[in-house]
Design goal:
The complex is a heterodimer of chains A (100) and B (311). With 100 residues, chain A is mainly alpha-helical. Chain A has one domain (12-97): Multidrug-efflux Transporter Regulator, Chain: A, Domain 2 (Orthogonal Bundle), CATH 1.10.1660.10. Chain A contains 5 helices and 2 strands; from the N terminus they run αβααβαα. Chain A has a two-stranded antiparallel sheet with strand order 1-2. With 311 residues, chain B is of the alpha+beta class. Chain B folds into 3 domains: 6-115, Helix Hairpins (Orthogonal Bundle); 129-206, Urease metallochaperone UreE, N-terminal domain (HSP40/DNAj peptide-binding domain); 212-300, Urease metallochaperone UreE, N-terminal domain (HSP40/DNAj peptide-binding domain). In chain B, 26% of the residues lie in helices and 25% in strands. Chain B contains 8 helices and 11 strands. Classes of the chains: A mainly alpha (100), B alpha+beta (311). The interface between A and B is large, with 32 and 42 residues.
């Protein structure tokens, strides 16, 4: 039996607004607010022509769970995700400095 | 079934106000949120805290829970007393999809679900589903076939939910990295009416391997050397996720030096690099022969490892 095959989202997939809403469980209103705060940076001029990179999936999922679980608003989400990115970068520098 | 002490979970008194409960929940939720915390227990704690709050935040559920009495201890074997919920009407329904304990499901689960049935369009695409798949780093080098078991919720005619196991054979493409997702079209939840099924998104994680550290496409491996190998140069076998390779150590290599094997990281366009991080291990000086060898080295080599301390 041949196994199932699918694209690597981060490299081969781009999402429309509707598709990204579907996959991360947000509504269009929320996603639009996050775009306005710079949490997600789609290509395209208007919401109907937006194309989100595959890497937006993980960022949008985090935004959804933080806003649901902790009731954080759009500007708070933007701050939290930026800080989490920074912590991740620092952690990986730290593990590099610690030998391995 | 184990009794759950929801007040203890949130760290509040039974007499706490709704505001106290909310504050305690918010604080713990921030602390244990799986996107924020690196604590391995975080996800479990976060679920427990969420379950406790789901009950205590709603005055009617809290009242019904309180009526069970204050004498139950967390973990004690528990059966709900008959009629414990008489006279209560739970609104519920928001907790759908949350993975709560049997205790919660027995007391608040099914009722919440019956009340929470949403009106849906008759034909609709099935929901997307998300799961994780754990692979070896070697699978990312070569590609692999992996079989994964998914727990799929099934709703029967009475609206009761149970889970069924579904096994899928997945092709892991060469060059995949940790945290990336595979999209399997049509492998999500079945649609309603004429609606097509949703998609399945699989998040890839690497099984821990003490030999390798991965950073994006680059792979780091610590390579221990004997002092003479580092000093004189040597050819040594270096383990890589794709099998062993022979590596030339240049003479006078110091510990901490990184030797790069271009293109030997995770495959891709461009591929990552593999770094051998050198460390030097001293042979033990337990025997007389070993001690003599160190002594003759001390005499033969005019060497001050602390030269830089001297101004």
């Amino acid at each position: 039996m041949a196994g199932l095959t699918g694209p690597v989202v981060e490299e081969q997939v781009r999402f429309t607004l509707v598709e990204l809403c579907r996959v991360c469980g947000a509504d269009e209103h929320e996603l639009t607010a996050w775009v306005a705060e710079g949490v997600l940076e789609p290509e395209g001029e208007s919401a109907s022509s937006w194309r989100f990179s595959g890497a937006s999936l993980r960022r949008a999922q985090r935004a959804v769970s933080l806003s649901r679980d902790l009731e954080i608003n759009a500007s708070g989400i933007a701050l939290a995700l930026d800080l989490l990115d920074e912590i991740e970068a620092l952690r990986s520098r730290l593990s590099r400095l610690g030998g391995l | 079934m184990e009794f759950k002490d929801y007040y203890q979970t949130l760290g509040v008194e039974r007499s706490a106000t709704q505001d106290d409960i909310k504050r305690a929940y918010r604080k713990l939720a921030r602390k244990y949120h799986p996107d924020v915390s690196k604590d391995p227990e975080a996800e479990r704690r976060f679920k427990e805290v969420g379950e406790a709050y789901a009950v205590l935040k709603e005055p009617d559920k809290r009242a019904a829970y309180d009526r069970m009495g204050a004498n139950w201890k967390a973990g004690q074997d528990f059966q709900p007393p008959p009629g414990w919920d008489a006279g209560f009407e739970f609104s519920g329904g928001e907790e759908q999809g949350a993975d709560f304990s049997d205790f919660f499901e027995t007391l608040f689960g099914q009722r919440a679900r019956q009340g929470g049935q949403r009106e849906r369009r008759w034909s609709a695409q099935g929901q997307d589903r998300h799961a994780k798949v754990m692979i070896d780093l070697a699978d990312a080098y070569r590609g692999a076939r992996r079989s994964i078991a998914l727990q799929v919720p099934v709703v029967d005619g009475q609206g009761r939910v149970s889970t069924q196991e579904r096994t899928l054979e997945i092709n892991i493409p060469k060059g995949i990295r940790e945290g990336q997702h595979l999209r399997l079209a049509g492998q999500g939840a079945t649609g309603r009416g004429d609606g097509p099924p949703g998609d399945l998104y699989l998040e890839v994680a690497f099984a821990p391997d003490a030999r390798f550290r991965v950073e994006a496409r680059d792979v780091f491996v610590e390579l221990p050397l004997a002092p003479w190998e580092a000093a004189l140069g040597a050819k040594v076998a270096l383990p890589t996720p794709d099998g062993s390779v022979e590596l030339s150590i240049p003479p006078e290599s110091q510990a901490g030096r990184q030797l790069r094997l271009r293109g030997k990281g995770i495959p891709g366009d461009p591929p990552g690099d593999l770094y051998a991080v050198l460390s030097i291990v001293l042979p033990p000086a337990r025997t007389d022969a070993a001690k003599d060898a160190y002594r003759s080295m001390a005499q033969a080599l005019p060497f001050d490892p602390r030269a830089r301390f001297k101004e």
